[in-house]
Amino acid sequence: MTLKEAKCGEVVLIKDFILKEDNPLLKKLIAMGIRKDETFEVIKKCGRNILIMNEGNRLVLSKELADIIEVEIIQKKSCSLEEISCELVDKACPKEGHLSQKGNKHRNRKRHRWGLLQKLCPFLKD
């Protein structure tokens, strides 16, 4: 079973990685502290991301990275959080290729830098 298939509230033990030893993704995971024989608790799943915790350290992984980590379930805890789809949290988890509404407004907005100078010298507006 992979980490992507683990459910919210489960404590998992990392058994192996589905990568070759020289893969840069494996080096990235090890640098993040995700190593064999480490235990993690799945806290929350949100759209494309999975929040996991290990001894007070929280990490967010994409489901693509979680799909290459083989795990074994050690313990099941009750979890009040469910998996949240991307449609419910568009602002926190936007879909690929879409900009948030705030980003569009900011991009289309004109900047006015002459505020105080225009008040003092109204003939400079043009």
Describe the structure.
The chain is α+β, with helices and mostly antiparallel strands. The protein has a domain at about 5-75: SH3 type barrels (Roll), CATH 2.30.30. It has helices at about 25-30, 65, 100-110, 115-120, and strands at about 10-15, 40-45, 50-55, 55-60, 70-75. It has a five-stranded antiparallel beta sheet with strand order 4-3-2-1-5. A hairpin with a 2-residue loop joins β3 (about 50-55) and β4.
The gist of it:
The protein is α+β, with helices and mostly antiparallel strands and 126 residues long. Helix content is 21%, strand content 29%.
At the first level of CATH, the class of the domain at 3-76 is: Mainly Beta
Label the overall shape: elongated
**On the 0-100 scale, what is the average pLDDT?**
76
Characterize the largest beta sheet: strand count, sense, and whether it forms a barrel: 5 strands, antiparallel
CATH fold naming of the domain at 3-76: SH3 type barrels
The residue fraction in helices comes out at: 10-25%
Q: What layout of secondary structure does this protein have?
A:
Elements: E1 10-17, H1 24-32, E2 39-46, E3 49-54, E4 57-62, H2 63-66, E5 69-76, H3 101-108, H4 115-120
Antiparallel strand pairs: 1-2, 1-5, 2-3, 3-4
Keywords:
single chain, 126 residues, alpha+beta, five-stranded antiparallel β-sheet, 4 helices, 5 strands, 21% helix, elongated
